[in-house]
Each structure stands twice: as C-alpha cells, then as structure tokens.
Specification:
heterodimer, A: alpha/beta, B: six-stranded mixed β-barrel, about 55% helix, about 15% strand
C-alpha cells in the first residue's frame, strides 16, 4: 500500500515538548508528562503502552483536547491549539477526533444506531439523511446488523464496544484515540475489535492511537510508543 | 426470544428534533420516576394556583355582587351644612371658639335636573336615578314602625338596583298612592298586598297608601325600612317640592366608581360618594384576601421550583459521565446547559397543561360540593383564559429558572473529570 505523498508530509498530530502538571501552585503539584514530543502521520496505526500511572491516559486526554497541556506545542490536523478558545477546541475535537473508551460509554437512553448518530447530530444540529444512512452502514460493518434498535443494556460487552467504534467513526475523524478498547474483553472479542480498528484505519485512512496493555496486540501495530514515568522511551 | 419487542431503531423524533431537545426529552423519559415526581409537583402547584385564584376571584365577585345588589355605585347628595365662624382666625390673635356642628336638614340637591343630566353624560355612568328619601312612620292599627320613604322613578331606579329580581309579589312599579314594602315590614305590621298603610311624616303630614307589592332584598334591615312610593308623593310628605334628596348612579365598571365620583365632585362641588368609600371595610378585606392569595401562590411556586431544581441537580450528578461523553463528542458547554434548561422548561410546560386540567376538575368537583344557602353553586366551574395563560407562562418560567443552577453545574463539568467519575 502506498500513501499519497501529501499525507506523509503533513502529520495529523504533532506534539513538541508537552508538559502536564496537576495542582499547579499548591504544595502537592505533580508533573505527569515531562516533555513529550511525538508525531503521527495520517493513517498511521500506533500503540501506546506503559505501566499503570505512567501518564498514558493523561497523554491521550491532552491529545484528544479534553485537557490542556501546561506547556508545549500541540498541533492537530495542521492547527495550533494553544490559542484556541473553548468553543473552537470543542468544534475541532468534534470534527477531527473519534474516541473509543475502555468502558464503551454509550448513552443508555439511546438505541445502538442513535448512539452512532449522536456525533453527527451534535455537529449538524439534527440527523441528516446521509448521517442516518452512514450510521446504518457503520453498524453493519461492525457486524451489528439487526441490533440497531437495541439499547446498550441489551448488548454484550463486545457488541457495546463495536457500537462505540462505529460511533467514533461516524464523522470520519482523521484521528481515532482508543483508551484500552479491549481492556475488559475476552481475547477472541478483543481480537475482533482490534481487527475492526485496523480495518477502518486501512479503509478510511484514519490515524489510530491505541493505548493497550496487551503486548500481543501492540505487536500488530505499525509502531509502538512506550511511556514510562511521563517520558517516551524507545522500544 | 419468540416475540421480540421491536422498537424503531431510530425514533422518528431523531430525524428532525434538534440535538438539545432530543437529549432533554430522552433524559426525562429515561428517568421515569424522577420525571413523574417533578411533573406531579408542577401539576399540583399549577392546579393549586389556578384553583385558588379562580375560587377567590369568583367568591370576591359574588361578595361584591351581593353587597352591591341593594346599593347605588355612586350617590350624589347636597353638601353638608356647616357652621361658619364669624371671626376668621389669624396668626396674630388667638381666638377661643366652640363650634357646634349644624343640624342637617333634609334638603334638595341644588339644581338637581342639571346635575342629573350632567351625570348621565359623564363617561362610565350607566344609569341615573333621582331619589326623594326621608324618615316617616308607617302605621296600621296600633302598631307603627319608623321607615324610610323612598320616592323613586321606577324605570330609572330598577337600573340602579335590580328591584325586579327582589320582588316576591307584584311588579316593581309605583303610581298614585300605590306602594311597595319589604316582606319583613309587612310581617311586622301584619299587612299584605291589597291592604292599606298609613305613613306620617315628622311634621304630621300623612297619607294612606295601597300596598301593591312586596320585595325581599336579602337584607332584613332594608326589608323592614324601605317603602317605595312615587317621587311626587314623597316630595309632598317630606316637604321637598320639586327637589330630590339624592341622585343614585350605576357605573359601567364597578372599580371605576371612585374615578366617576371624583369627576362629578369636581364638576358639581356637591357631596359625591362612591361605594368604594362607603364600603372601604369590605374593600380592605378583599384586598387582604388577595394579598394572602398572592403569598400562597408565591410559596407554591417557590416550592415547585425547589423541587424541579433538586431533581435536576441529582440528574446532573447521575449523568456526569454521559455529559463528559457528549462533551468529548463535540457538544459545547452551552448545548449541555441547554439540555438541562430544556428539561426544566418541558417539565413546566407539560406540568402546566396537566395542572390546568386538574384545576378544572377540582373546580367542577367543588362547585358541586359547595353550595350557597339557596342551593345554587357558590362559584362556577370555569377557567379564565388569561389566568390559564398566565399560569402556563409562569410554570414554564419557573421550570427554566429552576433548571439554571443544575444546568450551569452540568455546563461547568470538565469532560475528563466527568468521564472518570
């Protein structure tokens, strides 16, 4: 597979010397990220591993624009994020990033297909016919045809995670951030979920950053980043 | 599973409903018990407010109607006679004086025809009736009673006091020596229609009247005292040739009586009293009743608002993870805030609709239970559209206001904290 040259030239994600501290200005100030620099090319499939407490989740939250870094430079899809206000950050996040959480985090009051629709409803105000068609298609792709009307509570863990993946992909984000997406699934289901992410990465060219403890799965990624005590180490 | 309970994969609402409204409605539906409870609170509150207001308004109207049934709205009388001081007091020289109030003779309203014409031209005046009234003795055989002789023009007077409704025998009409007396006076004197009655004035003028009808004004005092005759006869007996002792008016708008009275007083410089001055005690009582009604309404609204607020605060805490997810998916703070404000507003809207229905039901039920002594319902089971609209608007407003604190709390939530929680 050959990448178009323009994609290779412009990284979808660029971090330069990112620091993140908590409780700033108090005696218990702690720095969790000590100067992280990394870049993700478009359509790259990268694993992020590291022991508990190494700052993986914090790094993912910073990249996902859910938390602001204390210092450093963060560029997503070619946009500098430091100067953006809350509204612009929210808009940028909605348009470019898809999240898959460890605990699927589906909204229990909505059916599977409605959950998949929500990001586009948020983006466009209401559900457009295209979004409806897309949501059905995505659910079929993740193997949930026939379960569209079910509520998350009526689905198994693996199925819920599939819905969550379909939701993360519904706006065709250029970057997918997955925080231990297979963390609470059995190996067979975990393999399936992983395969799905890989498939979408291949088909749509969405870059993926996956936090995982599973060395077996990490080995199947393009690249592995390892975080130890808030620093990236070569592996 | 043989029979799968299929609900549509995408509810039809999703296709056109804005995101905020969609989520708000879904949350209300999801938290069924909480929603039912706050809805019940709003429904009860709105029902109490409408029911109470409607009840009090109608009872007040009934009380005023009863009180005003037998009296004129505005009465024009001659000025009271006052004693003039011969020596006018000045600052330099102190004068000791005892001023005795003058006795008030029965006098005529000066140029009463012109005053009556002026009154009937005054805007807001519905009817004008000249009266010649004064004290006389009514006697039959050995019994006699002190009564008030009321010389009236029946056609004018029945427009001031609804005499036709009060007649128990005969019609409200006088001519020649025909007279109308109250049922209590008739009983006291042992007379009835067709009997004769002698009336004698203080200066011994006397006339024999034919009783042509009996009335019952629902007021024993008036039933004992009033004796209706023609203007002419009253003038003769009371020695008021060509004059009238007062002019009674009816106004189109009851509570504008004061203004009409002020207007006429300024133009005629006569004594002009409105019912609002002569019944200030009644008005005061009604005003106090309205104040306590408003107080109750305010407290009910406050309690309803607190109920909505507390339920939504709990809901925000329960939903903090979902709020975090929505934020992560690109929903800004304002939209999160809108979701919770809308929940408050929707509860207010639906609650007011239910509350209006409940209030109507209460009015229907209680109008059958509460009866006035004569068996007619004390109040009618009807809703004033203005009041209904007011209650609905207030309920929605209260719902929105009550949701402000929870909504702000939801909007301030940090997505990361919310997801982790």
């Amino acid at each position: 597979m050959t990448e178009p040259p323009t994609r290779a030239l412009s990284p979808i994600l660029r971090l330069v010397d990112i620091h993140k501290s908590y409780n700033i200005g108090t005696p218990v100030q702690t720095e969790v990220l000590h100067g992280i620099s990394l870049a993700l090319e478009a359509a790259e499939f990268v694993a992020l591993k590291g022991p508990s407490g190494s700052g993986k989740s914090t790094l993912l939250n910073v990249i996902g624009l859910l938390e602001r870094p204390t210092s450093g430079l963060l560029e997503i899809a070619g946009r500098q994020t430091e100067a953006l206000d809350d509204t612009s950050i929210t808009a940028l996040r909605g348009a470019t990033i898809g999240f898959v959480f460890q605990f699927h985090h589906l909204l229990p009051a909505f059916t599977a297909v409605e959950n998949v629709l929500l990001p586009s409803v948020i983006a466009h105000g209401t559900a457009t016919p295209q979004a409806l068609a897309m949501a059905g298609e995505l659910l079929a792709r993740v193997g949930l045809k026939g379960s569209e009307y079910k509520r998350p509570g009526e689905l198994s863990g693996g199925m819920q995670q599939r819905v969550a993946i379909a939701r993360a992909l519904s706006l065709r984000p250029s970057l997918i951030l997955a925080d231990e997406p297979t963390g609470n699934l059995d190996t067979v289901t975990a393999d399936e979920i992983f395969a799905l992410l890989r498939e979408f990465n291949h088909d749509h060219g969405s870059a993926c950053l996956i936090v995982t403890h599973d060395a077996r799965l990490a080995a199947r990624c393009d690249r592995i980043l390892e975080l130890v005590d808030g620093r990236l180490v070569d592996s | 599973m043989l029979i799968a309970r299929r609900r549509p994969a995408v509810s039809p609402w999703v296709r056109w409903m804005p995101f905020e409204l969609l989520v708000a409605m879904r949350y209300l539906r999801e938290g069924r018990m909480q929603s039912v409870l706050i809805l019940a609170g709003v429904t009860g509150g709105v029902a109490v407010i409408i029911f109470l207001t409607q009840l009090i308004n109608q009872l007040q109207a009934a009380i005023i109607d009863r009180a005003m049934g037998s009296q004129a709205h505005v009465i024009i009388r001659p000025l009271e006679e006052v004693a003039q001081r011969v020596v006018t007091p000045d600052a330099e020289q102190a004068v000791a004086a005892v001023i005795q109030p003058r006795e008030q003779r029965l006098r005529s309203v000066d140029q009463w025809e012109r005053v009556a014409a002026l009154a009937s031209r005054t805007p807001g005046v519905l009817a004008v009736s000249p009266i010649v009234g004064g004290p006389v003795f009514a006697s039959r055989g050995s019994s006699n009673r002190s009564v008030v002789l009321m010389g009236v023009q029946p056609d004018a007077y029945r427009r001031v006091v609804r005499m036709d409704d009060f007649m128990t025998q005969g019609r409200f009409d006088v001519s020649g020596t025909r007279t109308l007396i109250g049922i209590d006076l008739a009983r006291d004197l042992g007379v009835t229609v067709g009997d004769k009655l002698r009336v004698t004035s203080a200066d011994a003028r006397s006339e024999v009247l034919d009783i042509a009808g009996l009335f019952d004004m629902g007021n024993r005092d008036l039933n004992r005292r009033w004796v209706f005759v023609t203007l002419k006869l009253a003038r003769n007996l009371l020695d008021l040739p060509g004059g009238v002792s007062s002019i009674d008016l009816t106004v189109t708008e009851l509570f504008a009586a004061d203004r009409v009275a002020d207007n006429l007083r300024a133009q005629t410089s006569l004594t002009v009293d409105s019912w609002m001055q002569t019944n200030s005690g009644l008005l005061n009582a009604l005003a106090n009743q309205s104040v306590s009604n408003n107080l109750i309404r305010s407290f009910v609204m406050l309690i309803v608002a607190l109920g909505i607020s507390s339920v939504l605060v709990v809901s925000v805490v329960q939903k903090q993870r979902e709020i975090g997810i929505l934020r992560a998916m690109g929903a800004g703070r304002r939209r999160i805030m809108a979701i919770f404000l809308l929940q408050g507003g929707l509860v207010g809207l639906v609650g007011s609709a239910l509350g209006i229905a409940l209030a109507y039901l209460l009015l229907v039920v209680f109008s059958r239970i509460f009866k006035s002594p004569d068996g007619s319902p004390l109040f009618a089971a009807q809703l004033e559209p203005v009041l209904v609209l007011q209650a609905a608007v207030i309920a929605c407003g209260v719902g929105l206001l009550a949701a402000v604190i929870p909504a702000r709390r939801a909007a301030r939530m940090d997505p990361v904290q919310a997801i982790r929680a």
